[in-house]
Specification:
The complex is a heterodimer of chains A (306) and B (358).
Chain A (H helix, E strand, L loop, with lengths): L6 H26 L7 H19 L2 H25 L4 H24 L4 E3 L18 H7 L4 H19 L1 H11 L1 H6 L4 H28 L1 E3 L6 H11 L4 H21 L6 H18 L17
Antiparallel strand pairs in A: 1-2
Chain B lengths: L1 H31 L3 H13 L2 H26 L7 H18 L4 H30 L3 H21 L35 H18 L1 H11 L1 H6 L4 H28 L12 H11 L4 H24 L6 H14 L1 H22 L1
The chains are: A mainly alpha (306), B mainly alpha (358).
Chain lengths: 306, 358
């Protein structure tokens, strides 16, 4: 048991949790304005690829992350235009966005780098590992908390800021109002469409950063379809967290821990499938107790395509 | 005659979208610096170029078509079933186990496996429907979550208790099924199998059920206007659960025929990696949930994918050309409601102006 649970497990959990947390926060913003965004997976993938492209051509990590965020925002605006502007079904558009992202990144990988499968450059620097000044010297705490990429710290900061945004600011209340009932929100003079587009664009920024952390923070490379279902996991984390920033923080942690644990369990010849299954079962169970909050809104409830 | 007219009307929009999809594909082919015409020729050859390629396109279309038919039934009843993947896997693994371990003669075993596949897929999807009906847990979300549970559980089954340990490399797969339970091939040496006929039969059956039976009418009513249907005495829960069961059952059948007809064992990832479930969803959307239209759209998407394999074999253009074209197709199709919505809005506005003038 000592081998299974030690402090480096927590450290690797924090690293693994970051892309999921960022994307889930983005998804939460969308769900708070009444849009169910299934396209997170595709948005992260676009972010991951454009971060590598930005890094390759500018040589600057800051510019690379900004470039990733910008390209992903463009992609999310396509989602916004289709769902809000053209009133297309958001789930359908989300699925299409995922396919489009997979196709486009593979294509661009060929067109830009002329490689197939994966792009790796040994001279390319990944995101730096920040040594926290004071905490870094404390024995256990330093080992766990220090030495992560800046995006990791940013992710946790954003979760807290988003919580304050929803509970303390007027704009935050307005966003919540749009999600609860957008006809009512419109009737009191809120710019519903603008708030929705803004939320989706912010979701793009967050997913772009999630992708950057994936491709530059963890491995410094891009491979086809490297998100491997993380966008859907983020979607589930968002549901389990009821679209509440702190709830998402907790649920993403649970997912990250399961992820880190199942990698470790492989060395113990235990079925890892059950640890991997746990978050999904927990989410279904949680839905028994926490109904009609966050994840559900007037427009994400049941609907046919016709 | 009316039916043909309706069918052709519902096919105009998809055809337009196909043209736009191919144009977008052309831009990307040009971006990689390949000849557009040459690439599309390779795509055509890869999908229909020879009898062998034609039959592999039909084989690939089989699971897509069955899944799409199931989903179209759910959509018609107004429920968004996102769980086709889990339902397919559930059906496939249960059918495989029955085909492996049921002590019975070959033909009986094959039939039992097919029935089990349908039942397992149907019950898995019924579970999501039950959660919605009984506890108001959104089906959209629960069916998505249940995918992971099913896929992971099947993965556990084939990588531990039921794994084929005879080979040198212990792959996560079950032992090979005996030859007597294999679905017959339609042509010797070609990959299309009897499952394709099941898919065609299912399409016709659903078409007749929707059009000529009371149940079909209730499904349509429920999907188009739940309030009106309740007023008209439709038992919402019963119709929803039945269509969910049938929807999952068809997905289960899709997984089962893949196992009995082409892999002859449950191989981990063989059903999930080719994205059959999401492609089936697209085929339904393209056909606007019309069962006969689904036959054509499934063939189209399957041809796009097998064609792209040919493209990848013979040119520098990657396989994902198909993903791009598919995505553009879907974006254009989904914007369609918009067009009619916009027209409605315009005519409504005109009406209200008239009303005011009067």
């Amino acid at each position: 048991m000592g081998e299974l649970l030690d402090w480096s497990l927590v450290s690797s959990t924090i690293r693994m949790v970051t892309p999921i947390l960022l994307a889930a926060l983005g998804g939460a913003l969308c769900s708070r304005v009444g849009v169910f965004n299934v396209g997170l997976e595709g948005l992260i993938l676009v972010g991951a690829f454009s971060a590598i492209v930005g890094n390759h051509f500018t040589g600057s990590l800051v510019l690379a992350v900004l470039f990733a965020a910008a390209v992903t925002v463009l992609f999310s605006l396509l989602f916004a235009y289709m769902t809000i502007g053209l009133r297309a079904n958001e789930i359908v558009v989300g699925v299409a966005i995922n396919f489009l992202a997979l196709g486009l990144t593979t294509f661009a990988l060929r067109a830009v780098f002329d490689v197939k499968g994966a792009f790796y450059d040994k001279d390319m620097a990944g995101l730096p590992q920040l040594k926290l000044p004071l905490i870094g010297d404390v024995p256990v705490l330093g080992e766990v908390l220090s030495g992560h990429s800046p995006l990791v710290y940013l992710a946790f900061l954003i979760a807290i800021l988003l919580h304050l945004f929803f509970t303390r600011t007027v704009t935050g209340f307005r966003v919540l109002a749009v999600g609860m009932n957008h006809t009512a929100a419109r009737s009191i003079g809120l710019k519903v469409t603008r708030l929705q587009v803004l939320a989706i664009a912010m979701c793009g920024v967050l997913c772009g950063m999630a992708g950057a952390q994936l491709s530059l923070g963890q491995v410094t490379m891009f491979s086809e379809g490297m998100t491997a279902g993380r966008g859907f996991i983020a979607l589930v984390a968002m549901m389990l967290g009821q679209s509440h920033p702190l709830g998402i923080l907790a649920s993403s942690f649970l997912f990250g821990l399961m992820d880190a644990l199942s990698i470790r369990l492989q060395g113990f010849s235990l079925p890892t499938q059950f640890t991997a299954m746990l978050p999904y079962v927990l989410t279904i169970l949680a839905m028994f107790f926490l109904k009609d909050k966050g994840a559900s809104s007037a427009s994400s409830s049941q609907q046919s395509t016709r | 005659m009316e039916a043909i007219k309706q069918l052709s009307k519902s096919l105009v929009q998809p055809l337009l979208a196909v043209v736009i999809g191919l144009l977008t594909g052309a831009i990307f082919i040009a971006a990689v610096g390949e000849s557009i015409l040459g690439t599309y020729q390779e795509m055509w050859k890869g999908a229909f170029g020879s009898f062998y390629f034609l039959t592999s396109t039909l084989a690939r279309a089989t699971p897509i078509m069955l899944i799409a038919l199931g989903l179209s039934l759910a959509f018609r009843a107004g429920v968004f079933n996102l769980g086709a993947e889990g339902q397919m896997v559930c059906g496939a693994i249960s059918a495989t186990l029955v085909a492996l371990y049921l002590p019975a003669p070959g033909l009986v075993k094959m039939l039992a496996a097919l029935v089990t596949g349908v039942l397992a897929g149907g019950l898995w999807s019924l579970f999501a429907g039950y959660l919605e009906a009984k506890f108001r847990i959104q089906l959209l979300i629960s069916s998505l979550l249940l995918n992971y549970v099913a896929v992971l559980f099947a993965s556990y089954l084939v990588s531990d208790p039921f794994q084929d340990k005879t080979g040198s490399a212990a792959m996560p797969q079950t032992p090979m099924l005996e030859k007597s339970v294999w679905l017959p091939k339609l042509f010797p040496g070609m990959s299309v199998h009897a499952g394709f006929l099941f898919a065609l039969a299912a399409a016709l059956l659903i078409f007749f059920v929707i059009r000529f039976t009371a149940f079909g009418y209730e499904v349509k009513m429920l999907g188009q206007n739940p309030f009106f249907s309740r007023y008209g005495g439709v038992n919402r829960v019963r119709v929803m659960l039945t269509s969910m069961f049938l929807s999952g059952g068809l997905a289960g059948l899709a997984g089962t025929v893949e196992v009995l007809g082409s892999h002859y064992r449950y191989v981990e990832g063989a059903l999930t990696v080719p994205n059959f479930a999401w492609t089936g969803l697209m085929a339904t959307l393209l056909a606007n949930s019309h069962p006969i239209g689904v036959i054509f759209t499934s063939l189209l998407l399957a041809a796009l994918q097998t064609g792209a394999m040919g493209v990848e074999r013979n040119t520098e253009v990657p396989l994902e050309l198909a993903s791009v074209i598919q995505a553009v197709l879907i974006l254009f199709i989904s914007a369609k409601f918009t067009y009619s919505w916009w027209k409605n809005r315009k005519s409504k506005r005109r009406e209200s102006q008239h009303g005011r003038a009067a």
